[in-house]
Amino acid sequence: YSHFPNKMKWSKEKITYRILNYTPDMDKSIVDDSIAEAFKVWSDVTPLTFERINEGEADIMIKFGVKEHGDGYPFDGKDGLLAHAFPPGEGTGGDSHFDEDEDWTNGKGQVVKVRYGNADGELCHFPFVYNGKTYNTCTKEGRTDGYTWCSTTADFEKDNKYGFCPSPELGTFGGNANEEPCKFPFTFLGKTYSSCTQEGRKDGSYWCSTTSNYDEDKKYGFCPQETQGTKGGNSEGSSCTFPFIFLGKTYDTCTSTGRSDQKAWCSTTSNYDNDKKWGFCPGSGYSLFLVAAHEFGHALGLEHSKDQNALMFPSYSFIENFHLPKDDIDGIQDLYGARSGVKPRYPTPSPTDGPVTHLDLCKNFKNIDAVAQIRDETYFFKDRYHWSTSDIRHKPRGPKLNQDTWPGLPEKVDAVYERPDSGFTIFFSGKQYWAYSRSSLQSGYPRSLTALSLPQNIERVDAAFNWKKNKKTYIFYKNQYWRYNERRQKMDHGYPKMIADNWNGIHEDVDAVFQFRGLGHSYFFKRWYYLRLDDKHVKVDKVGNIKKDWLGC
Amino acid sequence: APTVAAPTNYLEGESEPQNDVDFAKKFLMKVGYFKKQNDSGGLFNLKDAVRDMQSFYGLPVTGQLDSNTIIAMKKPRCGVPDVAA
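Output (structure tokens, whole complex):
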């Protein structure tokens, strides 16, 4: 870690902050919560407290802006620079600015809070199924009034829970009109507008009048982000159509197949080969919480860290179940000291808590994170937990906390495999991997994925397994895979290759892969189903249900 | 390989080919690596600035604009410079 010159810091422990404006990307309450959570990252480990004020000059003034937004340090449009903040001090000191040209989310895709319907205030569940079709965005399907809606559970057919997505016709935010809806058409400086406009503003925000004449009434509000459809492409923002056909193959999710830039796209008709209509799928966006936590680190006196795992490393990477890394804790405590009575970072159940049963794999099953054959047992990993069995005809035992069995492991893992001969179990999580001999972490771990010669731009791996057929380890990510030579401890030449080219019938974006006791079959898990691969002929010979065949549900 | 006839149009404004050297110079200027050299009385030297940047990012320090270095530069990031201003 490092500090600004002269160890610039606040000379008080109670810091005030004020949110000057909001992004249209998420509901105001979600922005408020993300900011508060980001401050909590730092107040949890220092004596600092953060108090929000709504008027006057706060120590940390927070705003969203585009390009040149008033401080001489312009943003640069989508991607690139995401945000910046000033070190502690008077005036602009501590102020934190976020680039409004980014898509602000929770880091995992659009966060849409619905209004009205029968699920008012809940979040859209993407993807959701309606009329047999899968939707990754809000949709106008099934309505004639033009309002967009979403299901707040995965299956609208079954649960019937829905609400309306933000739209200018339903309501605005900010401004001076009490969040009333836009009134279209409206007049502004004598000209008529029938949609939200940036006219008259320097900050790039879209606004509308909430009466038919702004010039007379001066009532206005800002427009929320449209939450349906694709971006770019040639479909004018139409929604994806699932399933769709591309080069004769059927896709039921967005795919990056066919693109060299790895961007996810979809067809907006059921057959791309015939219609050639397509668009980019809404991306994951950037986690406002994570970026804000980083910026507030600057606002409190931390400069960028050289530690790639630190929150204060300058590049963005998404981390689920975030815990402030040690480097950042050391850095901030060097400035402000530690908080007395700091809570343990990872809550673990006490014997009196009873069994950890709140994650019922059968009841809530969506997919599995990783599966591995470790010694003679088959292990299933999901979120913070794992289950295991030595007899696949019986329901696996568990759940157990990953960190209880493998101390020092991150809460959630992406992929696991057993390295042949050494008996080491290798765990992947985010951009790193860990090696354990039984429950002992080996020295020198965790290591960066780049130590395996995987490219630096890979955020995580999807799955990994050692194939007994050739004793090589295969590492899967999206539609590509790499082959690692365990004996020579290096990646084989000529990789990555496309999964579709060499693994006959195997889908991209697999969740987990493993070989079951070397009995001639490997298993590729994806969402609710698995593909069984005949190792000898490298051919899929069975498709089955994970819950039924593996989890004993 | 199913890589033909796929959509290859990029989002508006993203299709212009970018010169890596120009991009790198802008990046290094923006995040403080050129400034560091200037403050210490030296001339702007791309290779030295790239070395400093590679060292910070934990990359092999070669001074060359190799693909890993460009990828690191193109990652979304914070606008605060890496080198104290």
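The longest helix of chain B spans residues 20-30.
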